[in-house]
Design goal:
Order of helices and strands: HHHHHHHHHH
Oligomer: single chain
Number of helices: 10
Low-confidence stretches: none
Shape: globular
Mean pLDDT: 95
CATH architecture: Alpha Horseshoe
Structural class: mainly alpha
Number of domains: 1
Strand content: under 5%
């Protein structure tokens, strides 16, 4: 079944669609860029579903995301829809280790999202920033003080814990 057939299948519930798309991505990794190109012009809800499918797929196979796809997710961090922001942040957190030399823009966008009014957007940004920080790249010099500041301002303990854990695991 093609991704278009999955997307257009009205009999599928949203979570089923996401899981089937995830399986399609895992089985068709070399074709997955086509799904992202398709989703770029979709309505926010469908675009977010496609990104969520990548989030699920990259939990088990983070290496499947190309640098072109990585840039797609980085750009999606600037979208207006909160769900697109948080799903993209989770993908970036899952795949950051495979894109160590291309994290600058991701970090900038994630820091902006870390101050979003939505808790899930902030949690997801914290997750991705934490994963980037744990990689101990040259970005850490800039990220450490920013993450420390974000952690001090954050009111939600669940998000603070993510930052504190990442700060402990990074080499200062």
């Amino acid at each position: 079944m093609s991704f278009e057939e999955i997307i257009n299948n009205k009999a599928l519930k949203p979570k089923e669609k996401t899981q089937i798309l995830c399986n399609w991505i895992l089985s068709n990794a070399s074709e997955s860029n086509k799904l992202l190109q398709y989703s770029a012009n979709c309505k926010d809800a469908l675009k977010a579903t496609c990104i969520e499918a990548f989030e699920m797929a990259t939990k088990t196979k983070p290496e499947i995301v190309s640098s072109t796809s990585f840039n797609f997710f980085v750009n999606c961090l600037n979208e207006k829809a909160p769900r697109i922001k948080w799903e993209s942040a989770r993908v970036i957190g899952n795949i950051a280790a495979y894109h160590k030399n291309n994290l600058d823009d991701a970090a900038i966008n994630l820091i902006q999202n870390a101050e979003h009014t939505g808790t899930v957007v902030r949690w997801s940004a914290a997750f991705a920033l934490g994963e980037i920080l744990k990689l101990n790249t040259s970005l850490n010099k800039e990220l450490l003080p920013k993450i420390d500041s974000l952690c001090k301002k954050e009111e939600k303990n669940s998000i603070k814990k993510i930052y504190l854990s990442a700060l402990k695991k990074s080499s200062h």
